[in-house]
């Protein structure tokens, strides 16, 4: 927000940033918190998102009104993913203590299979186009209805449902391809 204070951007761009902030700040925080499960990280993701919005306000200001919100949500998603990537590189002392002192019996093979299945599913999702990933993200990570997704993407609700069905079918196909390839190795 320093850019706003220094007056580097025009009044129209300031107004647009303020409108986006007023309209989406709480929504962005909730989306980010649902993914990250940390108040501090969610606030960081939202702050970084608004810095990116400020940096790219010229590009955002020329977008049609219905496309501004999805564009900003995608920026938030990317910032949230950056925080998750940073987390993966960090091992917290609490986690080490938990694994060292956990008295429950742990079935290593079962844990491995769960992890392998998640990784396989993630690799299948990574094969999707960005547009398909965004629809999956909105539907399953943000738990949005097809009606809301259709409004964000400026398409009919039926088109959103059909796209969702096609993407899930494609994911099943990718997943099964992976299983079939694993059988022959």
N to C succession of SSEs: HHHHHHHHHH
Q: What kind of assembly state do the chains in view correspond to?
A: single chain
How many domains, in number, for the residues? 2
Task: Report the CATH topology name of the largest domain.
Answer: Rna Polymerase Sigma Factor, Chain: A
How many helices? Answer: 10
Secondary structural class: mainly alpha
Q: For the report, how would you describe the main beta sheet?
A: none
Radius of gyration: 20 Å
| Strands, total number | 0
The proportion of residues forming helix, as a percent range, comes to over 70%
- Rounded mean pLDDT score: 80
The rounded distance between the terminal residues' Cα atoms is 54 Å
Q: What is the annotated CATH architecture of the largest domain?
A: Orthogonal Bundle
DSSP strand content: under 5%
CATH homology superfamily of the largest domain: RNA polymerase sigma factor, region 2, helix turn helix motif
Query: Outline, from the CA principal axes?
Result: globular
Q: Briefly, what CATH class of the largest domain?
A: Mainly Alpha
Low-confidence region ranges? 1-6, 95-106
Organism: Acidilutibacter cellobiosedens
GO molecular function: DNA binding; sigma factor activity
Keywords: DNA-binding, Sigma factor, Transcription, Transcription regulation
Domain RNA polymerase sigma factor 70 region 4 type: 119-171
